[in-house]
Each structure stands twice: as C-alpha cells, then as structure tokens.
Design a protein that fits this description.
The protein has one domain. The chain has 6 helices and no strands. The chain is mainly α. Helices cover 79% and strands 0% of the residues.
Length: 121
C-alpha cells in the first residue's frame, strides 16, 4: 500500500470535517430530532472526521482511523435518511431527491474506499 492511497479519503474527510465548523447550521438541520443537541452532534462528527483524516495519514494510526471513520459513516447514516425525509416532506425537486437517494448507497461505498485504502493488505 502506498501512502498516496490514503490521501483521497483523508482529504475528503478533512474537508467534510472542516465544513462542520464553517457551516454548522447546515449540518444541525439534518441531525435527527431524537438527538438531544444537534450542534454538539455537528461538532463532534466534525472533530471525528478531521481526526480520522489525520489518522489515515499516519501509518501508526491508519488502521484505527479507518475503523473509526467506517463507524462514523454508520453513525451518520440516520442524518442522511433524515435529510431525505425532510426533502420529501418539503416536496423538493426531483433532482435534489434523486441526489439524496443516490447518497445513501454512497455510505457503504465510502466505507469500502476507506477500508481498501487503509486496511486491506
């Protein structure tokens, strides 16, 4: 495995994590209502995305970071589903709804990408 294999997912998760702090209101809106503190959830997930991204770049922490990012992808799936449900309730455009439907199977694809880049030997 080359170090460049982890650069793509690391960059993606780093940017996503930073966006949680740059535009937290966007992420707050998609946190399911059963989560007690949307802003805290937004910030915590942003911290974990940034930490995971950095961890992917360090050989000694790469495997742990990959498992953490894959767990995070599972943990944020309810937010993606909630976002889709909100859009459906608001009768969003066909294109937006299609993008949100397509996003759901991207979660396992992202998990595979992280696994392939960081764990598979």
């Amino acid at each position: 495995m080359t170090p460049t294999a982890v650069f793509g997912p690391a960059l993606l998760f780093f940017i996503a994590g930073v966006l949680h702090f740059v535009s937290p209101a966007f992420f707050d809106r998609i946190v399911p209502p059963w989560v007690p503190d949307a802003r805290l959830a937004t910030y915590v997930s942003g911290v974990f995305e940034i930490a995971g991204a950095i961890g992917l770049l360090i050989p000694a922490t790469r495997t742990a970071a990959a498992w953490g990012l894959m767990a995070l992808l599972v943990a944020v799936l309810p937010a993606n589903i909630h976002m889709l449900n909100q859009a459906r309730a608001a009768e969003a455009s066909f294109g937006y709804l299609a993008a949100l439907w397509i996003r759901l199977p991207l979660q396992p694809l992202l998990m595979w990408w992280v696994w392939r880049a960081a764990i598979r030997r």
